[in-house]
Design goal:
Elements: H1 3-14, E1 24-27, H2 31-42, E2 47-50, H3 59-62, H4 82-87, H5 113-120
Parallel strand pairs: 1-2
Length: about 120
């Protein structure tokens, strides 16, 4: 992590009226941060998420520059096995909620950044 980002996070916490103590700190609300937060929440852990942007997944508002993800949206694998289909779905968030599958947000083989941002909301 960049030292300036780390120091900015410390200043944000110390600037509040009282010091906040958490067992876990998640830096960023992109796909990895959302997944980690989901599992920390499920495990009833004490955590906080820091995100520089005003919503989750703001990285995808700028990148990729061409506007398409490079991971495929494999909607149909030809199999009925949920585990197999999930392993071939590289864009969905891991969740017990089936509606968070990318196939509900995009039918494109290479989804656009607007679809991934919609999924993160």
């Amino acid at each position: 992590m960049d030292l300036s980002i780390f120091l900015a996070l410390l200043l944000c916490v110390k600037a509040s009226a009282q010091t906040i103590y958490k067992d876990y700190c998640v830096v960023g609300a992109g796909p990895g941060g959302l997944q980690l937060s989901y599992f920390l929440h499920r495990a009833n852990r004490d955590y906080i998420v820091f995100e520089r942007g005003n919503m989750s997944g703001t990285f995808f508002l700028t990148f990729p520059r061409h506007g398409k993800l490079i991971s495929i949206n494999k909607r149909h694998t030809g199999k009925t096995n949920k585990e197999f289909n999930f392993r071939h779905d590289w864009n969905s968030l891991i969740s017990d909620d089936e509606t968070l599958a990318m196939r509900h947000y995009s039918k494109d083989f290479f989804s656009s950044e607007k679809h991934i941002c919609a999924l993160f909301k």
